[in-house]
Every structure is written in C-alpha cells, then in structure tokens.
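::Amino acid chain::
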Amino acid sequence: MERKVSLYVSRKNPLTWLMALCLVGSAVARIVIFSGVEGVGAWSQIVLPIAACLLYVLIAILNGKEMFYKTAIPVWMASLYSAIWIRNNIENRIGVWLFWVALFFFAFMYTDITAGHRKRGIFLLVPLVLSPIVFILYFYRDALMAGQISSLIPALPDLLMLSGVFLLIFALRIHTDGAYHPTWGDRIDGRRIRTLAPMEQISAYFQVERNTCSNLFDESFEITPVERYIRQKRREGLTDFGILHVLLAAYVRGVAKYPQLNRFISGQKIYSHGSDIQYCMTVKKEMSMDSPDTTVKVHLTPGDTAADVYHKLNAAIEEVKSTQELDSGLDNLVQYLNLVPSVVLKFTVWLLKLLDYFGLVPGFLLELSPFHGSLFFTSMGSLGIRPVYHHLYDFGNLPVFAAFGCKRKALELQEDGSVVQRKYIDCKFTLDERIADGYYYATFFKYYRRLLRNPEVLDQPPEEIVQDVP
C-alpha cells in the first residue's frame, strides 16, 4: 500500500509567506472584531479558529517540506469551529445537518488529498477550498447586493483564513525524488510497515512486552581474518580501529541486505528506521569503577563502509570523552528528572510511555534516549569477561542487544590428525522475534559469518541496498 504522491510546500515560495500573512491577519482581525462582543463564545468562536490559523501556519512553514499532510489537523479544528457557527446562525435543523455533512466531507477530502491518496489532488483542492468562500459570500448576498460592504466585516476573519489556504494551493508541489516521505501513521523515528501479513500485524497485540518476545542467539566467530584486517586498517592510519568497528560495520552491511533488522515495534505496530541505523553504546571516561558512564547514539547508514563506521563512532566517543565530566544531553536530562519528587516522576515516566505509544515523544528526547534505536552493541571483552545475554528494554523500541567477549584460543583437531590453534570471539544476541522470523534471522547470521571471514569487502560500499517493504 504505497502512496502515489507526496505534496509539499517550500519556504522559498512567496505564496507560502502570503498564506502566513493572511492567516495571521485572520487571527488578529478575529481578536479585534469579536473581543468583548456579546453572544460570541470565547473558546468556540475566537480561541479555536485562532489556534487553527496559527497551527496551520506553523505546520506549513516548519514542516511543509516533509509533513504538509499534517495541515489537516487545523483544518479539522476550523471545521469544528464552522459547525458551531452554523448551529448558532442557521435555524433550519435540516439545513444545519446538511452543512455539517458538507463540513465533514470538506475536512475528509482535504485530509485524503494532502495525504497523497489522489494523483490529481492539487487540482481537486481548488474547488474544495473555493466552495466555503462562495458559501460565505452567498450568506451575505443581500448586503453585497445593497452595496453594504461594511456588513462583511464579521466575515473578514473567515475570508482571510480561507484565502490564505487557497493561495497556498498554488504553492503546492509533488516530490519527484522517488524517496519515501512520511504520512499518517508514521513516527518521527520510523515509517510504519503496512504490507505485512494479517497475523504479523496483530501478533504484537498478543505479545506485548519486548522481553517476553526475545530470542537468544549465541555464536562464536573465528577472528584470524578479522585480526589481519584490523592490522591492515591501523597501518592505513585508523589507529584505534578494533574488533568493535568490524562487528558493527558487518552488522551495518547486513542491514543493507536484510533491512528487516532495522525494524522496531512501537504501539503494537511495526515500523522501519529505513536508512537510519541508530547504534547505541555505553561509554566510560576511564576504565575504573568510580568513572561515570553515559550513552552515545551514532547514526549510521546501510551504505557505510568500515572507515565510515570508524570515523562516526570515534567522533561520537571523543566528543563525550573530551569533557571534564560525562555531561551528555542524556545525563543533563536525568539530572533534572532526579530533582522531581518520586510521585511526580512516576507520573512523568507514565506520560512518556503514553506519548511513546502514540509516537508523540519529541524528536530531541528520542535522540537522547538510549532506549530508542536500532541496536545496542556492548563490549564485554574490554572488561575481560565473557559476553552476557542482555535483556531488551520494555520502554522504548530497541529490538536488538548484542554483546561480545574477550578473545579466546581453542585447539581444533583437523581431518589429517593435526591440531591447530585458532582464535575466537563469542557473541550473544538478544533479538525481538516480532520484527523478523527465525528463517530471516538465520539467513542474516550466515551472511554475517561470511562477512567476518572476508572483512575486506567492508572497505567498499554495498553493490545494492535492499529497501524494506512498503
């Protein structure tokens, strides 16, 4: 179920700013004309339409490039205001119902067109928005015929509001880049997968908690080729290049071929991060028990090479370690939350969970959160211990938690009777089974193992990046 078109407006277009001028003028005119007037409901006839005008302006100017479809929200608010006005000014009950049906049709069609469900939606918007302007002029027809232009003053805010929207129609353009653009049901951090089998779509309602739906996978990788590759990269100038960079780069390459690994569950629905692979890890300033730790988030793409992963990861780590204290944005946020009384804090966390369920958590909080991302990869080898199966977080949407331990040696008996010593590294993965089935995971890990046997392929971008289903 892929959208046919995606509409947008640009801030560079003068019509966008002319629209903003009309709608702000409508808000100002409404305050001037109706403030203190008896019989005019302050909330329904002043606050509601003013809020609709200003919200429309903000969405069009700030998010018009990617989320113009959200202007349907203030349109529904304006339709509600109009429904209340019609109820108060038209005595015929049948006429009121007919106008309400017309308003519902207007708001529904505007939502449907701006969501891109109709190829020629821009042309349909012209008569759609023009019709309420014609209705207002028809309502004041007697005064217009008598030349009493001043009688139109009460309708001035509505005419300005509709005129602004009408002008913006001519600033609308269609994205032609072939890329996916957000629509209703998508989140800030991912797009909803809409073409899943019915059972896959409903399974998350029966399997709610992430930890009760996790699969545990254990694998040992022979790292002789990896060590040779690490020495080569260090000779090339990547002085801190290590096993983490190889494991992470191989995972990123795996996402390029198996994009379902970059999915997540939120609000009992399945989403995809698309080309944004959000890698989270814990960083300690010093390897000591007293040293504080914090979490960093690195944004990778399926097309990244091992060198790209190295530079992006090291830049994020150095940015944190360069400070006197590990005062990342997450640490600062947590410090403020610790000042909140426990009862209020419990309510705050509940509210965050509620907002997260509906995809309403602000983007800056998602960026700080270590519970939202594509995967968490942690090194137990730096601590000198074997890897552990780390639990997934029930809060947030992180679907994969991986840990690898320290290097170990093993003696292996060959077919000819000889004994060979090899080096291994153990990895343990905790996986949310709802984002992909067992066959898909098994196929990925076979590919992952092949990449670690031939890590040199990570020096070049992938020949093909597979896109997840619509």
Observations:
- Residues 27 and 50 are 5 Å apart (CA to CA).
